[in-house]
Each structure stands twice: as C-alpha cells, then as structure tokens.
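Researcher: For the annotation table, I need structure tokens for Adenine DNA glycosylase. Please keep the output clean. Sequence:
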Amino acid sequence: MNFHNRLIKWYLQNKRDLPWRKTANPYHIWLSEIMLQQTRVVQGMPYFFAFTQEFPTVFDLANASEEQVLKLWQGLGYYSRARNLHNTAKYIAYELNGVFPETYKELLNLKGVGEYTAAAIASFSYNEAVPVVDGNVFRVLSRYFDIESDIALPASKKEFAALAYELMPKNDPATFNQAIMEFGALQCVPKSPNCTICIFNESCLALQKKKVDILPVKSKKVKITNRFFNYFVLEDSLGNTAIQKRTAKGIWHNLYEFPLLETSEIVDFDYISNAVQNQVFPVYTILSVEECAEAAVIHKLSHQHLHIQFWKIKIKENIKEGIEFEKIKTFPFPIVIYNFIEKL
C-alpha cells in the first residue's frame, strides 16, 4: 500500500540513531520500552545505557537488590515501572531460564507489560505482525484518516489497532511500527506540526479539512490532587540525620525520604515550630527550626501536584541509628528530594 511505502521510506531517511534499534535482543527491547513509558527518549536514553552497563543480562537484573534498581532508576519517575521491571526480571530468570516469551499473547502475561509493550517486543524482537498503538500512532492515523473516535475509550483503541494492522506490511511489521511511531514523534507532533514539509500533505484529511489542531479527540481529563509535604531534615549533636522508607502503597513506594508531616494546606513557620515540638518530635529537645524557603517546590506528577517544603531541625540529643549526611546519597530517593540533598 502506498501509505506504508512512503512512511517507511521517510523513516529510513529520517530515523534517529537509537541504541535499541540496533538489536533484536528482547531484554534490551523490553528495557527500552518500559523506560520510555511516560518518558521522552532524550530523558530515557542515559538510563538505558546505565541499566545495560550495570545489568548486562536479565539474570544480572534479577539478582540485583530492589534498592540497587530503584537507585539506578532515580529521577526517571513512575517508580512502579522499576519495581515491575525487577519482579519480571526475576520471573524470566528463575521461572523461564532467562528466555523471554516469543509471542504477543505470552508477553502480555508478564507483570508491567501491557498491550503496547507486548506488541513492541513481539514485532521488534520476533517480527510478529502485531501493531503498536501509542499516542504517536493515534495522532498520525486520526489526522490522516480524519478519525474522530475518542482515543480515551477502549473501543477506539481496537479501532486504531485494526486500522494499523490493515496498513502494516505483514512481512516487515517491525519497520512499520518503528516508522509510524517515529513519524508521530518527529513530524506529526502534537502542537503546530510543519505540514508544509509533510510527505502526506496532499492526502491527509485533517489538513484538507483544517482539523489538524483538534485531532486526535480525547475526552478524559485527569483530576489533579494537591498535596502538601513538609520534610524535616534533622541534625543531631553528631551531625547525623534521619531518613525513612516509604512502605505504604502509593507514590514513591520503597524509596527513601526525610521524616514527613503532610498537611491539608501550605503552613507557616509558627505551625511547623509548634508541630515539631509537640507532635512530630516530642522526644527530642529542639534547638532550632529553620525554613529552607529557597528549596520550596511544586513537584508535578500525573495525578498529583506536591507542594514540598523543607525544614532544618537541630536537636540536642543523638538520633538512634542516625546517618551521616554524605551516606544518605547512596539511598534511592525521589528526585525532588535528591536534588535538595545535593544542595545541602
């Protein structure tokens, strides 16, 4: 079909030089796809190199501790991906003898592997004719064919997958999948694409109908929750501090943080000073409370905006199992806390 021929020709002339495109190794393909979920290529690339250097095989990753994995993942966000990655590595190494499933349906059974990732691995590693459908694919197809189906609906995903499958050359699904995603990433971008240089500008229905800026249609809007975190950076008479692991389910599970007081709104110095002495650290003699106003930050997650303030607290007593400030850098922290530590 003319569509896939022109698309693949464009891809071969314009594709980025990405390391995971130089291999059919399912371990490397899987790593890259998990890392690039919710993450831009330029941000994910250093992590891909770090992981493949530290953990050259799925056995190396499986034998690592969770803290090692989380530390290397630090700053990439969506940390459940790292935990799922580690659990799946152990499953593949110990239960499947290091051999990845070779079909789309079997890959779907792996923890953390959804339809998109399974399709990517199946087509890139095993050349199975199964389409990948991500945001780029939705955008390219909805614009080219003027499809107004709401991409937030499961039925629409099936519609787009069926269309992509129809367009795909069955003898080379890997190149087609790479091409359509790359076209969406580089040419048919979300905002203000340069349609004057587009290879499809004479056949794209959205361009003809002046609908480029309204396609694809997506109705769902994420409800944002605001949360207010007050972190206490303790310093005892020995110059040590205290950190804790977030063991509860939710954001940053199993990462480390300073002692935390979550409030319902932004609070002032008087509120914190009173809370520190009477509520949070009643067993300590508080020598001073200092607001780190320059470190205040709003950290935006997909569904939450975290309003974070740091407070330096000096105490008279020694902290039981206190840790030297230099040593805390070896623990896996959310990047917003690690950036604060770097400035201490």
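Researcher: And a one-line annotation?
Model: The chain is about 40% helix and 15% strand.
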